[in-house]
UniProtKB/TrEMBL annotation:
Residues 5-308 form the ABC transporter domain. NCBIfam families: oligo_HPY. It comes from the Bacteria. It holds the Pfam family oligo_HPY. InterPro entries: AAA+_ATPase, ABC_transp_ATP-bind, ABC_transporter-like_ATP-bd, ABC_transporter-like_CS, Oligopep_ABC_C, P-loop_NTPase. SUPFAM superfamilies: P-loop containing nucleoside triphosphate hydrolases. GO terms for molecular function: ATP binding. This is ABC transporter ATP-binding protein.
Length: 377
């Protein structure tokens, strides 16, 4: 499978400022060193309780937040520095690549490292930096076209003062994916694709229901011709009866346009329905990552197991053993040492509070960060 986006050691910390001088007094460690790949054409579900960092991860990948550190590779390009001021971008490139090329064995380079090393060898340090920093505006625009977002709240994500035609076509016209002369045809086409009558493009958002607004949000994303759509709790605000319609629409569009989704949700039943693979996050870290069927049939991380035990089952005769976790999710300002889940884990042992478990591939494609995977029955 082809990797579309590769997230490497992504970290996003937010400062907490206080006092007259607004000094930084602490850091919220929202996302703390996570790595994963998103494959072309798949739906990758990102699930966890609120505050686990899933939305921050999505926003940082889209570069609505700048990462604190780590890399976001899209296709065969490192896009991490695209939205930085020029001097910071140059610093990033020097620290990430030039340093590596000058000190490490080129034989060990793979992926973008290898590609950029060839460039560096051919052009020299200054030539390499110039090549990487040139045409940054075009690179940004290309990035914005590739990645789109569908927001959680269909009521506030559409500008109430603009007509649907403008809302849907603004971005694509700006980025050149559609021509001004084509706007009416293209908007009509996009709206009809999401099940809204083309003639409604002259209406305002308040004239539509929540489900219809979410469809308009999807049409807006579609017109950019994206490869990846990050859906952040895209169906959470919708009525249950509307929810499945929007999910099915998204699945149909995925097939038709070969779209890739990063589907962020706190709702395991929605994740189970839509995803091909699932990542479970806890307090800024990946707890478990696996293909959907494997994760739902045989979760190995105690936290995943507890989450699963809370999914309602349709048959009341069948009583599942519910695993109730003690306490609340600790603060991401001061996360527990060792395994971040240890204060709430029913099978924690001494080592858990001392040593952080690394994310390891236990079975093909099934990654778990736990010292005692599978012990919680
Ligand atoms: Fe529980 Fe220890 Fe595994 Fe953490 S490492 S989930 S505390 S058993």
């Amino acid at each position: 499978k082809k990797v579309l986006v590769s997230v490497k050691n992504l970290v996003k910390h937010f400062p907490i400022r206080a006092g007259v001088f607004k000094r930084v007094v602490a850091w919220v460690r929202a996302v703390d060193d996570i790595s994963f790949d998103i494959y072309e054409g798949e739906t990758l579900g990102l699930v966890g309780e609120s505050g686990c960092g899933k939305t921050t991860a999505g926003m940082t990948i889209l570069r609505l937040y700048e990462p604190t550190s780590g890399r976001i590779i899209v296709g065969e390009e490192d896009t991490t520095y695209y939205f930085l001021p020029r001097y910071k971008a140059a610093k990033y490139l020097k620290n990430t690549y030039v340093k590596k090329f000058e000190t490490e064995d080129p034989e060990t380079f793979t992926g973008v490292d290898k590609k950029y090393y060839e460039m560096y060898k051919k052009l020299g340090k200054d030539g390499f930096l110039k090549e990487m920093l040139d045409n940054i505006k075009e690179k940004r625009s290309e990035f914005r076209k590739t990645m789109q977002i569908v927001f959680q709240d269909p009521y506030s994500s559409l500008n109430p003062r603009l007509r649907v035609k403008t809302i849907v076509s603004e971005g694509p016209v700006l980025h050149g994916t559609i021509k001004k002369s084509n706007v009416i045809d293209k908007v009509k086409e996009a709206l009809e694709e999401v099940g809204i009558h083309g003639g409604h493009m002259y209406r305002f958002p308040h004239e539509f229901s929540g489900g219809q607004r979410q469809r308009i949000g999807i049409a807006r994303a579609l017109l950019m011709n994206p490869k990846l759509i990050v859906a952040d709790e895209a169906v959470a605000a919708l009525d249950v009866s509307i929810r499945s319609q929007v999910i099915n629409l998204m699945l149909d569009l995925q097939k038709k346009h070969n779209l890739t989704y990063l589907f962020i949700s706190h709702d395991l039943s929605v994740i189970k329905y839509i995803s091909d693979r699932v990542i479970v996050m806890y307090l800024g870290k990946i707890a478990e990552m696996a293909p959907k069927n494997i994760l739902f049939e045989e979760p190995l991380h105690p936290y995943t197991k507890a989450l699963m035990s809370a999914i309602p089952v349709p048959n009341p005769e069948y009583k599942k053993k519910r695993i109730i976790l003690q306490g609340d999710v600790p603060s991401p300002v001061n996360p527990p040492k060792g395994c971040r889940f240890h204060p709430r884990c029913p099978v924690a042992k001494e080592i858990c509070s001392k040593q952080e478990p690394q994310l390891k591939e236990l079975n093909p494609g099934h990654y778990v960060a736990c010292h005692f995977p599978g012990t919680l029955k």
